[in-house]
Amino acid sequence: MRLGLGIFGGSFDPIHNAHLIVAELAREQLGLDRVRFLVAGSQPLKEGRHHADSLDRAWMVSMAIEGLAGMAIDQRELDRPGPSYTVETLRELRVENPDHELILLLGADAAREFPRWREPEEIRRLARIAVFRRDDEEIPPGFDLEVAVPRLELSSTAIRTRVAEQLSLAGWVPRDVAEYIMGERLYGSNGA
User: Fold this and answer.
1) What is the pLDDT along the chain (192 residues), one digit of tens a residue?
2) What phi and psi, each to the nearest 5 degrees, are found at residue 115?
3) Which of 1, 86, 156, 177 is the 20 to 30 A CA-CA neighbour of 42?
């Protein structure tokens, strides 16, 4: 049986507990050997919309997944100049992991934007695509796999708002991530 490598990309601005839950559900439901959190550098469809710099976002992902079985961070898009294109990353991963089936993990919102991505058909050739689906959520047709996930009302936007309003992040992000956000004064925090 071929090993499966899940590729979970995103801004992770910041990473939160829902990201960790859906990554674990994907690993379980799809029988993945590993899930790599691929931290985006400059996303072409979200250009200029990152709130924390790339190193802060990568550090928060590293802290959030530390000690979680089968989870790893991949920073290659942060090291690559220019926009981050998934197709380029998948080409590299295909060469580096010839014994693994690549599974690209997408939220339903990203799946709807997928036709706008660079070389979508080449992406389909390089990897199977799994879409996170909440119970009542419609996902676009034409994707290989689905991962059933609960409705989790957590978002990076809501977390940034909580930080700006000086509200607790307990239960929203791992403790180390919350401490990092406050210590580094990210998202308008006062460091208190």
Assistant:
1) 578 999 999 999 999 999 999 999 999 999 999 999 999 887 665 555 678 999 999 999 999 999 999 999 999 999 888 888 999 999 999 999 999 999 999 998 899 999 999 999 999 999 999 999 887 778 888 898 999 999 888 999 999 999 999 999 999 999 999 999 999 999 986 654
2) -60, -20
3) 177
Q: Which of 150, 68, 144, 148 is nearest to 102 (CA)?
A: 144
Structure tokens that stand for 149 in this block:
């996930």
Say which residues have a Cβ less than 8 Å from residue 69's Cβ, sequence separation at least 6. Answer: none
Domains and CATH numbers, the chain: 3-151 (3.40.50.620)
Instruction: Report the distance separating Cα 65 and Cα 167, nearest Å.
Output: 23
- For residue 13, CA distances in Å to 19, 25, 83, 175 come to 11, 21, 17, 16
Residue 7: partners with Cβ closer than 8 Å, 6 or more residues away: 35, 36, 38, 74, 89, 90, 93, 102, 103, 104, 105, 127
91/45 Cα distance (integer angstroms):
20
For the record, the structure tokens of 94 come out as 């295909």
| Rounded Cα distance, 163 and 188, in Å | 7
